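As described in the Methods, two query proteins were run sequentially through the folding procedure within a single session, without resetting any intermediate state between them. The first query and its resulting structure tokens are shown here.
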Amino acid sequence: MNSFEYILAIAEERHLTHAAEKLFITQPALTLRLNRLEKELGIKLFDRSKTPIEITREGEVYIAEMQKIEAQRERLLRTLHSMSQEQPEHITLGIGLNRGKSILPMLLPYLKKHEPSLTVQICEAADGDMEQLIKKGTVDAGILGSAVMSSELFAETITREKLLLAVPAQHPILAELDTTGNTPQNPCVLQPERLNGQTFIMGNDSFGLTRYINQLFSLYHIKPGYILNISNSETAYLLAAAGEGITLTLAEIAVVPFQQTFPSPVFCVLPNFVLERNVLFACRSARKAEPVLQRVGEHLKKLYSRVPD
């Protein structure tokens, strides 16, 4: 029992003997405690010359402020106790088939450092399939690069990705372009009509980049020729380098080193059209307020801000 509890008992009873009985101690012991505290504080908390005992002005201020301190102390103890009783947290995180290699080597060590009680299971899947995995509860949250269509899901943007057309270096549609100094940061501007009848390398409709290629086809009324179906974006990029067709690629894939059997493809954009997409962190709407998912989302924003274009 701390000294403040003795002071409260005296303030309530206004009588040392009655307060001592309430506290299950002797009256002399209570008087000794009070004398020591008043000497330590350098003030009189009670006017004991009166019956019943009266609280001094200093005593009223002391009691009021100590009650605030004790309330804060109780809240702190409850919080610490609650934290000590928490079970280790776990989430299953869905991520695109190609996106994992760029972010997971940074994300997983980062989470181990900043979320030591959190365990993470990774589920790789195409962007188009990710929504269903989240809705079914197969994954708790997902990182995806295509618009979330379901109203059952909540999504927030964690970064934006730059998209580029990768065209084989010797492709005829590049004949009139100056490709000197071409890089993902310095792409050539390609007129959309040149893409008519050309071979494209792309995945099925569940893959995020394929959705964007189809949007380009629709927007510019492009009619592709032969389509080579490849689900892996990095493989599609390497096939473009090998001269097998045109593909849409991420800037971060475009800087991945590969065997220089073939020249690097030429990176192109279309005029008056920003080839970018949002990278989203999505979960079921009912779960968006869960602290662990909010924290993981914030960690992803911080990490993606360090990833070069």
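Immediately afterward, the second query was submitted; its sequence and tokens are:
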Amino acid sequence: MARTLRERGIDLLVLKQGIDTFTPTGRLPFHMLGAIDEFQRELIVEGTHEGLASARARGRTGGRRPTLTATQVRMARQMYDSEEYTVQQIADTFHTSRATVYRALTDEGDFAYVVYRSGKTKTDSDGRHYDETGQGDRSKAQYDADRMYWPLADHKRPHAKAMVYVVDGIVKRIRPNEPDLDAWKRHGSKWEIPVSDPILDPAEIAEKFPTLGLSIGDALPAQRGKLREHLAL
């Protein structure tokens, strides 16, 4: 096992001072030197941690500045989700590399789960309403249709903060997701997502999801063939 620099330093000091560690008289100063050195090192570490904590409290995290700002990351994700831009085109837009864009796209971040629907009510073989039920935003039928059943990777569940339902290109409802992940129920590869009552007040939506950029009645046309997407928050 490799010896630490501190241990090598103590050995060198022992040799220079001619300390004989084979005798009790020699071992005593050897251990005292080691204890003093360890004490000094712990003081340095403690001071470093205090300095870093003080810097973080002032908003300084240190290290290399990120290539893309938080706003640019959200824009890059939206461009990628639109399926209108390649990764190279996104990289060229922000004057960065493809690798940086890929890292931005794969980094975990909070998002809203956007669902695109038509206004025509449908019923499955079990009699359960899905898509738009026509029975009111707060009805049990609409609640059941809104929470069941959505494909989502398990590691993305903590980041799914809201469900946004777009009907015929117009934002109809925004439901916050319940934060308790134990309440989520798996059905094969899909999830029954526990959602709250819809937020219909624009001021409340803006307060709860300030970076969503959507409100009730906003136009959000769906791309052909796209039923769902993740909108970065």
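Residues 24-57 form the longest helix (34 residues). We note this only descriptively and draw no conclusion about the first query from it.
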